[in-house]
UniProtKB/TrEMBL annotation:
Domain of life of the organism encoding this protein: Bacteria
InterPro entries reported in the protein's UniProt record: Glyco_trans_4-like_N (IPR028098)
Species of provenance: Siccirubricoccus soli
Location of the Glycosyltransferase subfamily 4-like N-terminal domain: 15-215
Keywords (A to Z) from UniProt: Glycosyltransferase, Transferase
Protein name, entry field: Glycosyltransferase family 4 protein
C-alpha cells in the first residue's frame, strides 16, 4: 500500500497534537506495516524560511518527510490560491501513485489542493481526519464566539455575530463549499463522538463519519512524586499557551486559591508562539501577580516524563469544546488524574469522579474550588489514580487505520 499524508505543519517545527499524532501514525504504518509513502507538512514563512528554487524542502534525516511552502492562505474560506505552487507537487504525487491520501488538516493546504490531488491520483481513496472544527467554524475552528461564549454550531446569524463586516453570502458560500469538497471523501474520521455529532448536526453524512481515537507512543509511566505528608498539591499545565487553552483562567484560579490560603503550586509547560502582543502582555502581568505559579516554557516529547513526574494533577482549563486533547491521554499514560471542563471531547475522555474531575468552564472561581477539593480531599487522588485506564497506543490505532484503508480500497474494487 502506498500512502500520502498531508498535515498543516511538522512536529519538529510546531509540536501540536495534530502534527504529533499524524507523524507518529505515518511512521508506525511505515515501520511496522511496510506501508510506503510520503508525509507532506505545509508551512509558511512563520515556520521556515522559503528557500529558492522549489516549494519542497527536506526536514531532518527522513527522506519521506518533506515541507511544502504554502503562503497566501485564506483562513476564512480555507482557500489556497497559489495553484501554481500546488502544481509543483504533481510530479511527486504521480511518482508515488498513492492508494490512499489522508488529509489531517485543511489549513494551509486549502480546498484547491484536494481538487488537484484528485486529478493527480484519480484512483486514490481519500480520508479526512477532522481534528477540530475548522470546516464548520470560520472563527479559528473553535466554535467559540469572539466574545468567548461557547457556540453550538454554525448558523448565519451566529456567524455574522463574530464577523459583522462580512456579507451573509460569504457564510453561505463557505458552508456549501465545505460540504461539496468533503462529501466525496471515502471516510471522515473524528477522534471523539462529540465531534462526530457536531459534524452530523451541521449536515455532514453520518454514514461516512467514524470515530477514530488518537494513540500514543509507548513510554514507561513517570513515577509519582513522593509526598510524605500525603498532600497532592502540584498542578501541571501542558500545551500551547493561548486564550483558548485557558492558561489565563488557571492563573486567575491560582490567585483565588492564594487568597483563600490554599497551599499549591502551578507550573505552566508550553510555548506561546504566534500569540498577539496583547495576550503576551496579559500573560506576563498575570504571572507576575500569581506567586504560586510559574511558566517554564516549551518542552519536547522526550522531556515530558521528567516534567510530569513533578506534578500530581494535570489541568486542562480550555475555554472551548476541545475535541480529543492528546494531553489528557498523556496524563493518563503517566497515571495523573485530570481536571478539565465538563464539556465536549474533554468530558468524553475524563470521567468525573472516576479518573478526574470536571470543573466549570472559563470560570476561575469554579476552577479554584475544584482544585481546592482535589488538593484537600483525603484519599481522592489515590482513588482517581487507581481507576485510570491506559489510553490507546499508536500501534493499536495504526492497525485500525490500516483496516480502514483496506476497507476503502476493497469497497472500490467491489
Amino acid at each position: 500500500m502506498k500512502l500520502l499524508f498531508l498535515c498543516h505543519n511538522h512536529p519538529s517545527l510546531q509540536p501540536g497534537g495534530t502534527e504529533v499524532l499524524a507523524r507518529n501514525l505515518f511512521r508506525e504504518l511505515r515501520d511496522r506495516h511496510q506501508v510506503e509513502g510520503v508525509f507532506l507538512a505545509a508551512v509558511t514563512g512563520s515556520h521556515r524560511e522559503r528557500r529558492p528554487g522549489t516549494m519542497l524542502q527536506g526536514i531532518g534525516d527522513a527522506a519521506d518527510e518533506m515541507l511544502v511552502w504554502l503562503g497566501h492562505f485564506d483562513r476564512f474560506f480555507l482557500a489556497q490560491p497559489d495553484t501554481y505552487g500546488l502544481a509543483s507537487l504533481l510530479p511527486l504525487v504521480a511518482e508515488l501513485a498513492p492508494d490512499v491520501i489522508h488529509l489531517h488538516h485543511a489549513l494551509l493546504w486549502g480546498v484547491e489542493s484536494i481538487d488537484l490531488l484528485r486529478r493527480a491520483a484519480p484512483r486514490a481513496r481519500f480520508i479526512f481526519t477532522a481534528h477540530d472544527f475548522f470546516p464548520l467554524c470560520p472563527q479559528e475552528g473553535q466554535m467559540l464566539t469572539t466574545a468567548g461564549r461557547l457556540c453550538g454550531g454554525p448558523s448565519l446569524d451566529a456567524c455574522q455575530g463574530c464577523f459583522p463586516g462580512r456579507p451573509g453570502a460569504d457564510f453561505v458560500m463557505r458552508e456549501l463549499q465545505m460540504r461539496d469538497v468533503f462529501r466525496d471523501f471515502d471516510r471522515i474520521l473524528t477522534p471523539s463522538a462529540f465531534a462526530r455529532n457536531r459534524y452530523i448536526a451541521a449536515g455532514w453524512p453520518a454514514e461516512r463519519i467514524e470515530v477514530m481515537p488518537n494513540g500514543l507512543l509507548p513510554v514507561p509511566p513517570a513515577p509519582h512524586r513522593p509526598a510524605p505528608d500525603g498532600r497532592r498539591d502540584r498542578i501541571g499545565f501542558f500545551g500551547h499557551l493561548n486564550r483558548f487553552k485557558g492558561s489565563l483562567v488557571l492563573l486567575a484560579a491560582s490567585r483565588q486559591l492564594e487568597a483563600a490560603g490554599v497551599a499549591h503550586r502551578v507550573t505552566l509547560h508550553g510555548g506561546a508562539a504566534y500569540q498577539s502582543e496583547a495576550f503576551m502582555e496579559t500573560l506576563k502581568a498575570d504571572l507576575a501577580a500569581t506567586p504560586s505559579a510559574n511558566w517554564v516554557g516549551p518542552y519536547t516529547a522526550a522531556e515530558l516524563p521528567g516534567l510530569i513526574a513533578k506534578v500530581d494533577w494535570v489541568v486542562v482549563p480550555s475555554i472551548w469544546w476541545e475535541n480529543a486533547p492528546l494531553v489528557i491521554q498523556e496524563a493518563f499514560l503517566h497515571r495523573r488524574p485530570v481536571i478539565c471542563g465538563g464539556i465536549g471531547g474533554m468530558a468524553e475522555m475524563v470521567r468525573d469522579g472516576v479518573d478526574g474531575l470536571h470543573a466549570p468552564v472559563n470560570d476561575p472561581v469554579g476552577l479554584a474550588q475544584c482544585i481546592r477539593n482535589a488538593v484537600e480531599s483525603d484519599g481522592l487522588w489515590e482513588r482517581l489514580v487507581a481507576r485510570i485506564e491506559a489510553p490507546p497506543t499508536i500501534a493499536e490505532v495504526a492497525k485500525r487505520h490500516l483496516t480502514l484503508y483496506q476497507d476503502a480500497l476493497e469497497a472500490v474494487s467491489a
